[in-house]
Design brief:
With 221 residues, this protein is mainly α. The chain has nine helices and two strands; from the N terminus they run H-H-H-E-E-H-H-H-H-H-H. Strands 1-2 form a two-stranded antiparallel ribbon. The longest helix is centred in the first third of the chain and has 27 residues.
């Protein structure tokens, strides 16, 4: 019964996948083709990571370590305790005194290395020193870490994950997809002129509402 309910909820959430995807694609087309130096470094960072994973090696241990760390941080945010923590290139695990959907799914949509990079960059450049780290190098590393998060998350989701099974695989996958698209849209809204994060959210909301109204009208009116 629980499995059926989870599947139904996942199907009901599918319009969000359509609306968020279409809204992102629409805003992506508004990006100015003449990119600034920072934007070029950001895209260069994405390209570097793609090259690393395709032709050199897959940084599995780094991803597993970050994945389990986010689980631990999420548990602490929910006032839980971490009783065990394991991370290796073969996989990882964590035991906590509390568990919920946020703790289970947070590693799939929180780019921990990108957030750490942003905090370190801000502290070094604005608190301890005055512009020690070049913004261009920061943008390169930001692009690299975001690409690392997205690509490794997609790669991980190809295998059957216990974290996703708890909340329902379809429901979890949709939730992770929508949050990741939103995070990317936020980054693009900050980085690229012409990409409006506010319009992205507004259009996604309007499209979702329109799809649900259309389905309701077809079924009941």
């Amino acid at each position: 019964m629980r499995k059926t309910v989870k599947t139904v909820i996942g199907i009901l959430l599918l319009p969000f996948v359509i609306s968020f995807s279409k809204s992102f694609y629409s805003q992506f087309g508004n990006i100015d083709v003449f990119l600034s130096m920072g934007q070029q470094y950001f895209l260069f960072g994405i390209g570097i990571y793609c090259f690393i994973q395709l032709f050199l090696f897959k940084p599995v241990y780094a991803y597993v370590l970050g994945h389990e760390t986010v689980h631990a941080l999420a548990a602490w945010l929910c006032f839980g305790k971490v009783t065990s923590f394991k991370a290796s290139s073969a996989g990882g695990s964590i035991s906590t005194s509390k568990n919920n959907i946020f703790i289970s799914l947070s590693p799939y949509f929180i780019p921990i290395y990108s957030l750490t990079l942003i905090v370190v960059y801000y502290l070094i450049n604005h608190v301890f020193t005055d512009g020690l780290i070049s913004p261009s190098y920061f943008m390169l590393l930001l692009g690299l870490t975001i690409a690392f998060h997205i690509i490794m998350t997609v790669d991980t989701l190809k295998t059957r994950q216990p974290d996703l099974i708890k909340a329902g695989y379809l429901t979890s996958s949709i939730f992770i997809y929508v949050i990741n698209v939103t995070v990317i849209a936020l980054a693009f809204g900050i980085l690229f002129e012409g990409f409006s994060f506010r319009s992205f959210l507004s259009n996604a909301y309007v499209m979702s509402l329109h799809i649900y109204k259309s389905i309701f009208n077809q079924l009941f009116l």
